[in-house]
């Protein structure tokens, strides 16, 4: 087993398998600071992990989606789990779009305790956000071991 495969198994064990993860999702604001610099925006979201991507239920006109549409580069950190990374955000569209049926089934199960309370699926702005990881670092036992992932090339150091 390669180090990448070993690390992916750990990610799946920690964040996959139907777990509802709270992650910090950072985007770039649509407005610059008074000094003209791009400003980061971060918020916590519930996310489902599978095969190098996190999936979120959100709203199509939310700040996070508008920011991702302007600049799809994002960063994430899984709260209290020693994993952080960067990738590309993608609005997958309306949750009831037939192309989203399989993902919808998974997310309705993972988020069953709050999904219907928090989301109005009849509203076409109720959408799925995919965060396709490009790079990431997983720290084991407070730095005893590290996995530095390159998800695009399926490698880890």
Automatic annotation (TrEMBL):
InterPro entries xrefs: Split_barrel_FMN-bd
SUPFAM superfamilies: FMN-binding split barrel
Record's protein name: Pyridoxamine 5'-phosphate oxidase
Organism: Proteiniclasticum ruminis
């Amino acid at each position: 087993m390669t180090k990448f495969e070993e690390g992916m198994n750990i990610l799946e064990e920690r964040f996959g398998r139907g777990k509802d993860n709270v992650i910090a999702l950072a985007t770039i604001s649509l407005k610059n600071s008074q000094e003209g610099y791009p400003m980061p925006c971060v918020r916590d979201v519930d996310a489902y992990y599978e095969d190098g991507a996190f999936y979120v239920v959100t709203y199509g006109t939310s700040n996070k989606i508008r920011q991702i549409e302007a600049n799809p580069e994002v960063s994430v950190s899984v709260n209290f789990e020693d994993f952080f990374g960067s990738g590309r955000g993608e609005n997958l569209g309306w949750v009831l779009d037939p192309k989203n049926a399989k993902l919808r089934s998974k997310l309705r199960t993972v988020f069953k305790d709050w999904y219907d309370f928090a989301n109005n699926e009849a509203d076409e702005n109720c959408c799925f956000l995919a965060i396709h990881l490009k790079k990431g670092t997983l720290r084991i036992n407070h730095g005893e071991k590290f996995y530095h992932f390159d998800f695009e090339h399926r490698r880890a150091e």
